[in-house]
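go over this chain:
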Amino acid sequence: MRIAITRQVSPQIGQCELTHLERQVIDVELARRQHHQYEEALAALGCQVHCLPVEPDLPDSVFVEDTAVVLDEIAIITRLGADSRKPETTSIARALEPYRQLCTITAPGTVDGGDVLCLGKTIYVGLSSRSNQPAIDQMMAFLKPYRYTVKGVRVSGCLHLKSAVTQVADNTLLINPEWVEMGIFKDMHFLEVDPSEPYGANALLIGINLIYPSSYPRTQRRLEEHGLSVKTVDVSELIKAEGAVTCCSLVFKG
């Protein structure tokens, strides 16, 4: 059984942190409907969805991926790069305690889960405005007993590593090569986003199926032409908050 932890959309999402996008008005009720449809897509692909209560004073709290890295052996509670987001981890730690032993990133380390791409026993961590080398060093120490390798990756032009690259099949990555260097990822095949859709590299792999934003139809066609099973969801309001489909859940084996 796959568990998917989600959280309801904050009424303050319009006050979210933004780094690379201009602020737009976010329709909170529409964002909530879209998020519910996203949860329905997770359930349709076999996930047991655990939706946490709304955090009304934490605008970005729907983006639960950033608060933890959940592996088969342990879960790492992050220390988020934006100060306004640091309180988000408290309730996530409580939600994960029944499933995993917890380790916690401490100062001066900062890391957002959106910067963490796990490919087997190799974990790539984006060196971004939100994640730094001290956090990578702590992750290496936590994961050494389990024989993981942790590598820092420079990203530019986007918020997180997984804004630039995500896994879409066992040996295939969807990538925007303008934002991250392809040669870093060894022994992988690549699908490039359509140049007109630079934000289209974020897909959520559930088993052999992808949850993918309907906002990027040209890249969606590339995925389907590659033989991948794609289930689209409209997350246009969450995209305004620099969100994406991986951001809105923590998916792991129960």
Q: What stands out?
A: The mean pLDDT is 97. Residues 28-44 form the longest helix (17 residues).
